[in-house]
Amino acid sequence: MQHNPGSPRIRMAVLACSTTVLLAGAQQVLASSGDAWEEFQQDVERACLAAASGVLSEITGIQVDPYGSETYGFAVVLGIETGTTSQRIVACAYDKASQVAEVSGTFEP
């Protein structure tokens, strides 16, 4: 008995196998994407804290945008401005490609 690759039975088998493989792959991607976003947030936090340490002598808080933009991660860092007793805020931009963070000048809270 010869099987015609265009027969409905063969097409259904191929479709079923393809669907199973795609669903299994999608579950893996969904599971790892949560971990990837968490790792991204930790990278942004580390880089922004390091960058802000030149402007803020005592860092009292940080808030990281969970996803950022297509190109950048963002955070807002709160702390005591170096050489003063004043609490200030700096904005931080983290370049996803180079993995380098830069901070703005200070803002009053």
Structure write-up:
The structure is a single chain. The protein is α+β, with helices and mostly antiparallel strands and 109 residues long. It has one domain (8-103). The chain is 41% helix and 29% strand. The protein is built from 1 helix and 4 strands; from the N terminus they run αββββ. It has one helix spanning 8-52; strands at 56-64, 72-81, 87-95, 100-103. Strands 1-2-3-4 form a 4-stranded antiparallel beta sheet. Strand 2 and strand 3 form a beta hairpin. The longest helix has 45 residues, at 8-52. The radius of gyration is 24 Å and the shape is elongated.
The gyration radius over C-alpha positions equals: 24 Å
**Count the helices. How many?**
1
Question: What is the end-to-end distance?
Answer: 79 Å
Query: What structural class do you assign from the helix and strand content?
Result: alpha+beta
Helix percent band: 40-55%
Note the overall shape. Answer: elongated
Q: Report on the biggest sheet.
A: 4 strands, antiparallel
Overall average pLDDT? 82
